[in-house]
Amino acid sequence: MTVLRSTRSRGIRVAAGLGVLVVVAAGCTGNSADDGTGSQSSAPRAASDNDAPGKKVVIGFSGPAADHGWLGAINSAAKAEAGKYSDVEFRTAEGTNDASLQISQIETFINDKVDAIVLLPTDGAALTEVATKAMNAGIQVVNVDREFSSPFAARTTILGDNYGMGVSAGTYACKLVKDKNLSNPVIAEIAGIDALPLTQDRSKGFADALKACGQTVDNRVAAAFTVESGEKEASNLLQAAKKIDIIWNHDDDQGIGVMQAFDNANRHEFAFIGGAGSSNAMQWIKDGKMEATVIYPPTQAADGVRLARLLVQQKGLSDLVQVEVPRRIVLNAPVVTKANVDKYLPLGFKS
């Protein structure tokens, strides 16, 4: 989805589905748990009423320039999430793709002695030093989407799953092959920028999942996460492949151009799978113009805001026995189809 997003971990999925991390289970601390020995366990539990107002938390947020639908959703979702809490003072720096400017923004937050910083870095390596400085100053840093190069630069890291996106798309493609009883299916892929690790991870996940059902990618082009490049590369793909059964496009923003190419060529005979989860894609699914899309959660910074608040208030995730916020959280990459699109539609971002 974003041109600069870094490679994602394929670690433990702590939060799945909608990417909502904090689930309020009001009143559960009043329930005693049987430890299996017949006695009642007195082991401490994570806070249960996490949304109740608590200690005031000042959070500084620095994110990217909103030059892409997914990036715009990242910023707006973070601001909206902070607005839900009366105990959060949210300070937003201007969105930027300039690492030097973003470093100065973090320096300002440090000087202002904010309680926490939620940071989606323009470049993880470039922002590592200043993020470490913030941590050393006692500020809780939540790293979002593009990882720092040192574990000391953040208290916790929240990520999407690029490899998992590919696996989800490939697994769904395998299901289509079986359900449609396709013999010798032609499977195509419209990737993003090939030089980026995120694209490489998505493609590898897709290929690995297809391999599990004996399939391969027959035709592949790489675009640049833009509408124009999507249309151009999809047109090239259609000219090269006279028969296609399934197409996976990595990014729903570039998918607008991809769909235009399909319309221009009057080619809609294939199952079209997208990636990211834009509102455009979800509407196409509802209208029957698109088979599915794979979510790359635009909630990551919003989830980061929640985590930052919990960290400062010394709370944990209410659905975990562990009483502290985990060090690393990788969000799930679910497949959205006509059967479940209404569930995910509220998370769809405008391309």
UniProtKB/TrEMBL annotation:
Domain annotation Periplasmic binding protein: ranges: 59-314
Pfam families (UniProt xref): Peripla_BP_4 (PF13407)
Region Disordered, residue ranges: 33-53
PROSITE patterns, per database record: PROKAR_LIPOPROTEIN
Keywords assigned: Signal
A molecular-function term among this protein's GO annotations: carbohydrate binding
Subcellular localization(s) per the UniProt record: Cell envelope
SUPFAM superfamilies given in the database record: Periplasmic binding protein-like I (SSF53822)
Signal peptide region: 1-33
Compositional bias annotation for Polar residues: 33-43
Gene Ontology cellular component list: cell envelope
Family classification: Belongs to the bacterial solute-binding protein 2 family.
Stated name of the protein: Sugar ABC transporter substrate-binding protein
Record lineage: Bacteria, Bacillati, Actinomycetota, Actinomycetes, Micrococcales
